[in-house]
Amino acid sequence: MVSACILYFSQTGNTEKVAYTIAGRFQGEGVDNVTLHLEDAADFPEAYEDSDIVGVGFPTFFGYPPPHVMKFIRRLKGKGRSAFVFTTYGGTTAGDSLFDAAMALSKRGFRVLGGLKVEAFDNYPQSIWLKINEGRPNEIDLARSEEFAARILKAHSERQGIEPEALASTNPFFIKNRGKPRKKTVGALREKVEGKVIFNKELCLFCETCKKSCPTKSITSGEAHPEFSWKCIDGMRCYQCVRVCPGKALLYEQPISDKEYKKLLKGIADTPEEKARAYIVP
Ligand SMILES: Cc1cc2nc3c(=O)[nH]c(=O)nc-3n(C[C@H](O)[C@H](O)[C@H](O)COP(=O)(O)O)c2cc1C
Ligand code: SF4
Ligand code: SF4
After folding, report:
1. Residue 219 contacts residue 226 (beta carbons within 8 Å)
2. How far is the CA of 182 from the centre of ligand 1 (A)?
3. Which residues, at least 6 apart from 34, have a Cβ–Cβ distance to it below 8 Å?
4. The predicted structure's pLDDT at residue 143
5. Residue 167 lies in a domain
6. Mean pLDDT by 10 residues, the chain (282 residues)
7. Any idea what the CATH number is for the domain that residue 212 is in?
8. CA atoms within 13 A of residue 240's CA, in its CB half-sphere
9. What span, in angstroms and rounded, lies between the C-alpha atoms of 108 and 221?
10. 81 part of a folded domain
11. Dihedral angle sign, alpha carbons of residues 163, 117, 48, 68
12. In this predicted structure, what is the pLDDT of residue 235?
């Protein structure tokens, strides 16, 4: 029996929905599979070290995979096994996220079966209140994810694969920056849209929900309230602490007006043709 392990990182559930949709199809096709949030992965290494197929899913952060996901991939051992990648993105650009993840998996000795990108609700703070891409992934997105899962299994059984380059973006910004350090490219995007987080101690319930949800463990317990190091994901804020704070003690200060923000997103957005390349398989 073929075995698969689907590893995913997800903060607001978009990528998780896609991960479980793929897992459901695998199950239906008789594949013995495990679906694991990246946070739990360290407890079950045998699940992804021994499976025939490894899938890695993540939200796109500024056009690339979140840096801690890349660090995880770079520790995996392929040994000729099959792998696939998937991302959810807020409908602006999935950038080179699939390409970077697939390339890293290929360098670790995996045969890349394909990649999938799914439009989803944009969970960046300013996008949340602008309700950008609300309602995605929808039924059509999830049906496409299922289709992708079936094609991945076919490619695995026929021992086919793709070159990571097939997943490279056609968006001019990402073509231009492909050879440059990712930190630099991400920095150029971040400086335009990254807002400050204001911590109001008076409103803090000291519930530590922020601490529990921080993917980088950069929040610690203080005497009467949490302490924030703001080291975050290679310095990049994911704003999960702000999203989950029930006491409104963490507030996001938007750096630019909604009009400017929308204009910025439009300026870097993927073309309809690029968005339509929802999945690439052999
Ligand atoms: C730090 C950060 C950066 C993001 N960058 C992008 C981006 O470059 N392009 C895009 O379309 N959406 C972007 N988004 C939106 C997320 O990719 C999208 O909402 C994703 O589906 C969230 O997945 P999750 O619910 O699994 O966490 C960004 C969100 C955050 C928090
Ligand atoms: S989630 Fe908000 S209220 Fe709870 S400890 Fe963190 S900052 Fe305070
Ligand atoms: S933004 Fe908040 S939740 Fe995200 S890494 Fe930084 S401290 Fe942690």
Report:
1. yes
2. 16
3. 4, 5, 6, 44, 47, 51
4. 98
5. yes
6. 97 98 98 96 94 98 97 97 98 98 98 98 96 98 98 98 98 96 92 93 96 94 93 91 95 95 97 97 96
7. 3.30.70.20
8. 23
9. 37
10. yes
11. positive
12. 84
Provide the pLDDT for residue 128.
96
Element (H, E) at 173: helix 172-176
Token reading at 66: 């979140």
Check pocket membership of 268 for ligand 3, CB cut-off 6 A. Answer: no
Whether 110 and 27 map to the same domain: the answer is yes
On whether both 46 and 153 belong to a single domain, the answer is yes
Q: How far, in Å, from the CA of 251 to the mean position of ligand 3?
A: 13
What is the CA angle 162-166-167, rounded to 5?
105
Please check whether residue 241 is in contact with residue 207, taking contact to mean a CB–CB distance below 8 angstroms.
Answer: no
Q: How many domains is the chain built from?
A: 2
Give yes or no: residues 165 and 73 share one domain: yes
If asked whether residues 219 and 253 sit together in one domain, one would say yes
8 A C-beta contact, residue 29 and residue 150: yes
Residue 112 burial by CB count (10 A; 0-12/13-18/19+): exposed, middle or buried? buried
Q: Among 109, 97, 2, which residue's Cα sits nearest to residue 56?
A: 97
Q: Is the CB of 213 under 6 A from ligand 1?
A: no
- Mutation test residue for ligand 1: of 9, 16, 62, the one with most atoms within 8 Å of CB: 62
Predicted pLDDT of residue 247: 86
253: which strand partners? 196
3-state SS, 181-217, equals CHHHHHHHHHHHHCCEEEECHHHCCCCCHHHHHCCCC
- Domain assignment of residue 229, given as a range: 194-266
